[in-house]
Amino acid sequence: MVWAGICSTGKTPLVFVDVGVKISRYNYMDMLDEDCFPWTEQHFGDDWWCFQQDTAPSHKANETQDFLQDRCPDF
To answer: Residue 6: what are its φ and ψ, rounded to 5°?
Structure first.
C-alpha cells in the first residue's frame, strides 16, 4: 500500500507500507507524525491548511481523533 497527502501546491512524501501490514490507529498516528506533519510544517508554515481523511477504522479511532484535534487546525 502507498499513502500520500496532496494539496493544490504539492504532495507529501510517499509512504510505502509492507504487504500484509494492517494499518492500526497506532501506526497510522506514527505515519502522520513521522511523514505528514513535518511536511505540513515545512510546506505551510503558519498558513492555514485542512486535513481530511476517509472513514477507515484507523482514522475513526478515538485516539486518532484526539491526536488530530491536537495537531491539525480546525479539525
So the answer is: -130, 155
CA-to-CA dists, residue 66 to 17, 25, 36, 46, 70, angstroms? 24, 11, 17, 21, 6
Phi and psi dihedrals of 8, rounded to 5? -70, -15
Task: Kindly report the pTM of this predicted structure.
Answer: 0.87
Total domains in the fold of the chain:
1
| pLDDT, tens only, 30-49 | 999 999 999 999 999 999 99
Residue 45 lies in domain: 2-71
Listing DSSP states for 2-41 in one string gives EE--EETTEEPPPEE--TT----HHHHHHHIIIIIHHHHH
Tell me the C-alpha distance between 73 and 62, whole Å. 18
Could you give the C-alpha distances from 55 to 2, 48, 58, in angstroms and in order? 17, 23, 8
